[in-house]
Amino acid sequence: MAKKVVATLKKEGGVKYAKVIKAVRSPKTGAYTFKEEMVTEDMVKSVLTDK
Q1: How many domains does the chain have?
Q2: Are 48 and 41 in contact (CB under 8 A)?
Q3: What is the widest separation between alpha-carbon atoms in the chain?
Q4: pTM (two decimals)
Q5: Rounded to an integer, what is the distance from CA 18 to the centroid of its chain?
Q6: Residue 14 CA, distance from chain mean position
Q7: How confident is the model over 13-42, as pLDDT tens digits?
Q8: In sequence order, which residues have a C-beta less than 8 Å from that of residue 2 and are 6 or more positions away?
Q9: How far apart are alpha carbons 8 and 24 in whole angstroms?
Q10: In which domain, by residue range, is 41 found?
């Protein structure tokens, strides 16, 4: 359960960034919380598969 939103925070010739929003389940209560991160586009897949 993850959503990728592409942010427009770049200058010409710069690095592209993506805002990654992950739903994380709490082991104690079972409730979901959302974790947001700004990462470079080449790191998106590794952030989403990170456990």
Answers
A1: 1
A2: no
A3: 46
A4: 0.58
A5: 7
A6: 19
A7: 677 888 999 999 999 999 999 999 999 888
A8: 20, 21, 22, 23, 48
A9: 25
A10: 2-7+16-49
